[in-house]
Amino acid sequence: MKNSPWWRDAVVYEIYVRSFADASGDGIGDLQGIRSRLPYLAGLGVDAIWLTPFQPSPMADGGYDVADYRGVDPLFGTLADFDALVADAHAHGLRLIVDVVPNHSSSAHPWFQAALAAPPGSPERDRYIFRDGEEPPNNWTSAFSGPAWTRLPDGQWYLHLFAPEQPDFNWRNPAVHEEFLDVLRFWLDRGVDGFRIDVAMGLYKDADLADVPPSGEGFQSRSPIWSQPEVHEVYREWRKVLDSYPGDRAAVGEVWTDTAEDLALYVRPDELHQSFNFAWLEAPWSATAFRKIIEDTLVAVTAPTWVLSNHDVVRHITRYGEGSLEPEAGLDRGRAALLAMLALPGSAYLYQGEELGLPEVQDLPPESRQDPIFERSGGELLGRDGCRVPIPWSSDAQSYGFSSGDARPWLPQPAAWADLSVESQAGDPASTLSFYRRVLALRRSLRASLPDAIAWLDSPADTLLFTRGELICAINCGDEAVPLPPHGGILISSGEPDQTSLAPDTAVWLRQA
Length: 513
Ligand code: NOJ
Fold this sequence. Notes:
Blueprint: E1 11-15, H1 31-36, H2 38-44, E2 48-51, H3 79-91, E3 95-100, H4 110-117, E4 130-131, E5 149-151, E6 157-159, H5 174-189, E7 194-197, H6 231-243, E8 250-253, H7 260-264, E9 274-275, H8 279-282, H9 287-300, E10 305-307, H10 316-321, H11 329-343, E11 347-351, H12 372-376, H13 422-426, H14 432-446, E12 455-456, E13 463-468, E14 471-476, E15 482-483, E16 490-493, E17 501-502, E18 506-511
Parallel strand pairs: 1-2, 1-11, 2-3, 3-7, 7-8, 8-9, 10-11
Antiparallel strand pairs: 4-6, 5-6, 12-13, 13-14, 14-18, 15-17, 16-18
Helix pairs in contact: 5-6, 11-14
Bound molecules: 1-deoxynojirimycin.
1-deoxynojirimycin (NOJ) binds next to loops.
């Protein structure tokens, strides 16, 4: 048996709290809803769950605008509910990590309210990023469209890399450091197994707030906005806190970079345990692209992670299906990509609903959309609501079993989701849910014996073939079936099992001959 910490090869399931399960019957998911579905998650075979923010918030950005870092929003429950959820998750053998949002607070946070009430130059304003001037202090734009600066009636501007309701903290102020160290301890004391760190590469800005160069080259890794060297000191401080608790508490950063080398800086031994590796999620359906990502990652990062979807991007089966004439191509490719991802060393992050093969909902009525991106772009960008539609649990109930009562879910679910519900898929061996359960169980049974390295084998164009110990993984991203290498049996196939050839849009795990 390998003796490595749990997070190293864990499969972590992301719960977008407002869309997972609604026990209170108000149309919005909550902590008790999650609690009631823990047996489902344990049965699915994941190792851990990550909860998106549930702290008190005006919900200008679905909770990523936190007004109180030490509480639970009444929409989602109470601190007692949270404690019960942690205890139950652990009793089900599931680790639990929570989101921490250190780049910005809500504008309703007492610190920002105090800053608004205090004069320019005051200590209260110094906890955020305020500047004087007739014009905005620089050319930065918000990630949600529009300027990144908002002007107050007294003439000062404040920075918000996201919505105006999300003012950025000034991490050059020691009080901000102290506050977040205390916030981490607050949740660690309540038993969480770790944190997902929001916008982890954004906390420090260029000291002079220099303009962003006009070309987008190297935007994520090297710009006055992102990945300033000082940010690493924050994670060294945080690592010491995490290490001071028993039981392998871990942190995964939401780090967007241009290269795997830049990503690796965040997971040096005294910094974060992991960072999301968004390269695959950003890649097209292409064996060449996948191979480069796998190679670059495994060279640069010793604790790799893999992810295909999350609450910020178009669901991967929809991405993979774009441009294909085959109606099922997206789902077939999504299942194949999952097999490839789960065959690799490291840990994997799944996004709720991908195990049901849920597509992006692209035709939400405009009036139902809540993502600030939609409004701030004047409707030009649809935003992220399409991947946040509540989960269908049963086939016939109102809201497909999402809400306990007869409330309407906060985003409407497509009628076709009756057939994609957990209830519809659970007993069907050919369903995507059954496939996820099978592959997660198989991965769990093999993982102690699998080495941390892979070896590439020659394979036809548009395919990948690699071995990892006793496992062979093959994926076909091309248009033609290809022969399989000699093997000792099929362990699992993402499509119809075939002993000798691999169909297009299919992946397979084989036993070594
Ligand atoms: C990343 C989160 O995943 C996203 O949902 C949020 O809008 C931004 N950070 C801002 O907090």
